[in-house]
What we know:
The protein has 20 helices and no strands. By secondary structure, it is an all-alpha fold. The chain folds into three domains: 6-65, lambda repressor-like DNA-binding domains (434 Repressor (Amino-terminal Domain)), CATH 1.10.260.40; 73-181; 192-367. It comes from Anaerofustis stercorihominis DSM 17244.
Amino acid sequence: MKEINISNILIEKxxxxxxxxxxxxxxxxxxxxxxxxxxxxxxYPDIELLPKLATFYNISLDELLGYNPNLTKxxxxxxxxxxxxxxxxxxxxxxxxxxxxxxxxxxxCFPLLLQMVLLxxxxxxxxxxxxxxxxxINTILELLKRIKSECEDISIVKQxxxxxxxxxxxxxxxxxxxxxxxxxxxxxxNSDSLISRAYELMGDYKKAKEITQITIFQNLxxxxxxxxxxxxxxxxxxxxxxxxxxxLEKLNDTYHINRLNPNSxxxxxxxxxxxxxxxxxxxxxxxxxxxxxxxxxxxLFPLTLHGDDYFDMIDTWFxxxxxxxxxxxxxxxxxxxxVNLIDTExxxxxxxxxxxxxNILNELKINLGDN
Length: 371
């Protein structure tokens, strides 16, 4: 918790108004010596005098005490990425306690609370044991409940609902997801194209193009995400699975998703390799794992959100994200996971006798830092 800085504020405000300590003392009904002690930090004003002091200087109590319950976007980003680095390098309990202290200090800063939820979700796997895991889940759900009941920013509330649904999926409660989000998909109107057309009619073609690019990019990433889900759902239908994989790879060839959003293709190849193993197609699985390795080694790092020659107007949009264009976890954590996904996956254990598989795994370890 930040120290109370009332003495400096009292000096600053008195000098702004060109008043003497005696002027303040007369208004407050105290001695000049008392005012002097307040300003030198020798003592604090009695609590019942604080509202009168704030009124005298025409400031809020928070301003008088030097306390700001909210943080800027940049401050939130700095806190998030610092804690993400800590999770990668320090004991989980220590970092979790740091998170708890920050949450308590800024309990009414809802943008921060939302990012703390994301931070805990992204590092949930590091909890290490059932007790810690449950503690993380409980903290996340408490924060989401507070955001939904107290926050007046609709966009933050909507994000909190989606995150709550993710938590229920993570913890094996699909019925809670349906209860939260509903049973059916309701068609919704997309305002993005309307905004783009409006800028076009105003003659601002650059802004219209930028918004349209962002919309295309978002829809493309949504399409890849939904096709990944469909890929996994067809674990019982090899023909549809392979057709879906083929179409995903055509999308990748057309839009270079492996460079635009390499994590999407990492997930595609990881899922496809597991499914090929379930279909007893180990040779095909190894070929897919090689593609996974190529993206992980060649395309993923440095891991930042960015456009390309075609999507050449979206970088500014990324920079305005709550966490900026940086990844939500540290590079070390991501690299460790990329190796472990292949090295420890039960479905790939039978591939350990394959020299080609071992070569791929060794390339991953060497290039991603596990020497």
